[in-house]
Amino acid sequence: MTAPLLEARGLRTVLGGRRRRFGASVPGVSAVDGVDLAIMRGETFGLVGESGCGKTTLGRTILGLQRETEGEVLLDGRTVSGVPPRVARRLRDSVQYVHQDPGAALDPWWSIGNTLREALAIAGVPAAEREALIDQVLDAVGIPLSMKRRYPHELSGGQLRRIGLARILILRPDVVILDEPTSGLDLSVQATVLNFFAETRARFGLTYLFISHDLAVVRLTCERVAIMYLGRVVEVGTVAAIFDNARHPYAQALLAAAPSLSMERAQDAPVFEGELPSPSEIHKGCRFRTRCPFAAPACAHTDPQLEPVAEGHHVACIRWREIPDI
Amino acid sequence: MLALWRDRVAMFGLAIVLLIVVLAIFGQWIAPYPEDAYDVKVWQRLRPPSAEFFMGTDALGRDIFSRVIMGAQVALIISVTVVLASALIGVPLGLIAAWRTGWVSDAVMRVTDIFLAVPQLVLALAFAAVMAPSIQTAMLALTLTYWPFFTRIVYGEARRVRSALFIDALESVGASPLRIAVMHILPNIAPAIIVRATIGFGVTILVAAALGFLGMGAAPPTPEWGLMVAESRRYLPQSWWFSLFPGLAILFTVLAFNLLGDGLRDVVDPRLRRSR
Amino acid sequence: MNARADIEPLMAINDLSLSIDGTEGEVKVLDHINLRLLPGDIMGLVGESGCGKSTLVKAVLRILPKAARITTGDIVFEGRNLAAMSSRTLSSDIRARKIGFIPQDPYLALNPVFTIGAQLLEIMKWHGARPGPGSNRALARARVVDLFRKVRLPDPEAMLSRYPHQLSGGQRQRVLIAAALLCEPSLVVADEPTTALDVTTQQQILCLLRDLAEEMALSILFVTHDFGVVSELCKSVTVMYAGQTVETGTMAEVVFSPLHPYTKRLIDCHPDRLATLEGIPGIVPSLIDPPGGCRFHPRCSEGTGGCPRRAPILVTQSPGRAVNCIHFDDVPA
């Protein structure tokens, strides 16, 4: 078994807490509450969950911009956690991040060319080499070199997406975190975008952490996927294992809820009662039990850990053996 | 810039501002009696407006028209100096306060708030009162009371930009806070600063005039508009021209800067930058 | 199937064209739109961004910017032409009364400084819904609470005094659904109401809408870009592209036997169908200077020479099934 390229062990990130000198401190929210992940070189690893599950925070913690409260992040076996964000970013400069809205990630007052040159300048690439690198990457993402003089507002969404990716590709990363890359896109555009990311991955030998709320898209593009709920990974495995044999009730519900092009109406599928509880309500026991159709009294006392279902397929539920297939 | 053209009101403001600038630079050659800035000609005191003296003469016989023109230079010097100096103090403070929440930010903003809580004129008066009346005093007092306006606007705008996605992206590629503040946040908030400065020119002239009027600023015989209005008080209502024309000068100048500033606010937008 | 041809539609949009005057010229947002909505139907209005679906439904209620004007056609609802109606009549008779509207973003549609109860009671007051204005406030409250129960909001009584920020996205959307139903309209127009919601919440809302439509004998016109949603909720579908109606029929007909080339390619882009990631070549045309005839022809792999000149009309293939494409103009008898 080769060692994973990127690993997270017992990661916890608490957001928003403030200690006040006078008056009560505000307790923070554990947006990420005990996550273990291992991403292998060259794979596309999906991270799925709904809003409030902590996937964006997890992405930013792995990136280093958000400092973890507890736990470790390992890159190629080396511990790169336990340091403030600026140091973390230097240590983890082989991990880069692509934002959901590519146009918004570019400074509107800077031309495209200058933005790219700056990224290289910050990375310490000598001035003489910068132009060649930029030209090479722009070519690879299909942007004509004449665009270097343009400003973000003069370009289309598709072009901006490519440039956003180009800006991190020139830094030659190993891991790219894609944050909701297809959210809000029309279906036809989505297909093009996914294609583009796949080609780029092959060409540059990248490893992707693909964060999305859209299971259907994850199924198409990822090899393995982890499903998050309220700061924890509740199930992880290969795409085939999850889609054919999801064991966690939440994973099953997510799969059932996704609107699909099928003749059978999902009228009989388990519809969720209630809503996502706010992360600041800490439950004892399984955090899903308030909405789980299979909750048993034991679920209130044990906090389920990830157990193996099969090789490479883990689930965090004490009743997984008894839960029927969907 | 084309959009500014279409804004007639702003163009009107710009025209007057340009006029003031021209008067300030070339006043000596435009004014019919440039020496009247300082000379005294008692024999022609308090003459009403005529062909010889377009705006009449004042209590010391000086041509008011010439003095109003020369006053433009004084007004502009005061306002430019004050606005520049306030910006140099206020903008960096605002950037520092906006960078990160914490005690530094709180400290800066609370001091700013204290300054802003007191009307500028009153505060300036307080400062000026402890120094001898002069233009320099006025400028110092005005600078000390105007920088908070810059800090407040820079703080608000910089915080907004600070939370923008592209700043996040820059941090992600390793940009230092200084680089981000100076090369990325500053250009994006420049429009707000420019607008603030433009309006500031007008406001400064007004407050300087008030200081002058109250005897805390420019001292006689400086041809400062506020001072001229102060001197004219004793001769109202008979010598109405003595107060009216300097007063109108103040009015139009401040109005012009405000209109220009408003027009600029509507128009300055990063989307106007075009590739060459 | 033949019965469909005989039923009087609840709403018929006939040959509707609409332009918006913009800074760069006249934007021909809608081009000869044809749509028939039968009573009791749940119709999905599907298309990608910029196709005009939102504009179309807003045109029905005429909640469009001033610069928008209807250039041809009419909107016949319960026998009256909405396009020719004065704004005042629309306000007093149609909006909220006969046609309810569920907007897209639950976060923006509610006023943050008023309680939910206050906002809904105000709607009732504005529209003098039964009970009439000035009459019993208690009756009005009871009606609102009853609707809250119908839309499955937890704790309906307490909901009256809550503020929007205290509710989750799904709850806010339910409030908006309740608001749309307050005056017992016969038609509800929903503008992508689930786009901003999580998948599990979306499922709940779709279920709710399905049940409400049955319970209250509602017709729903549901705007979406997601074919999956259409197949979960809708009975019939109309597909739009670049301001034109491209195809219409029952859900099964359109989703499983699409006729129009655009529909086929769009459905193939859905992740459930995607074998290879292809997309549709080309880009959406400018609506200031759109292609003549069928606006899809520049991107269409089955285009012919006649396409740019063909009048964009829906040709009925069978009752309730129509296509706007040159290849289907000759209908077998």
Question: What is this entry, summarized?
Answer:
The complex is a heterotrimer of chains A (326), B (276) and C (333). Chain B is an all-alpha fold.
- From the alpha carbons, calculate the radius of gyration of chain B and give it in angstroms: 22 Å
Q: Which CATH architecture of chain B?
A: Orthogonal Bundle
Specify the structural class of chain A: alpha/beta
Terminus-to-terminus distance of chain B: 15 Å
Q: SSE order of chain B, as H and E? A: HHHHHHHHHH
Task: Give a count of the beta strands of chain A, DSSP E runs of length 2 or more.
Answer: 12
Contiguous helical run count of chain B = 10
- Sheet-strand content of chain B, in percent, reads under 5%
List low-pLDDT spans of chain B: none
What is the CATH H-level superfamily of chain B?
A: MetI-like
CATH topology of chain B: MetI-like fold
Instruction: Note the quaternary state here.
Output: heterotrimer
Main sheet: strands, sense, barrel of chain B? none
Helix content of chain B: over 70%
CATH top level of chain B is Mainly Alpha
User: In one word, what is the shape of chain B?
Assistant: elongated
Percentage of residues in helical conformation of chain A: 25-40%
Description:
- The complex is a heterotrimer of chains A (326), B (276) and C (333).
- Chain A is α/β, with parallel strands linked by helices.
- Chain A is 29% helix and 21% strand.
- In chain B, helix 8 runs parallel beside helix 9 and helix 9 (225-232) runs antiparallel to helix 10.
- The longest helix of chain B has 37 residues, at 177-213.
- Chain C is of the alpha/beta class.
- Chain C has an eight-stranded mixed sheet with strand order 6-7-8-3-9-10-12-11, with helices on both faces. A four-stranded antiparallel sheet of chain C has the order 2-1-4-5, with helices on one face.
- Chains in contact: A-B, A-C.
- Chain A binds chain C through residues 50-51, 186-192, 194-195, 198, 213-217, 219-220, 253-254, 256-263, 265-267, 269, 271-272, 274-276, and chain C through 48-49, 154, 168-171, 198-204, 206-207, 210, 225-229, 231-232, 252, 255-256, 265-267, 269-274, 277-280.
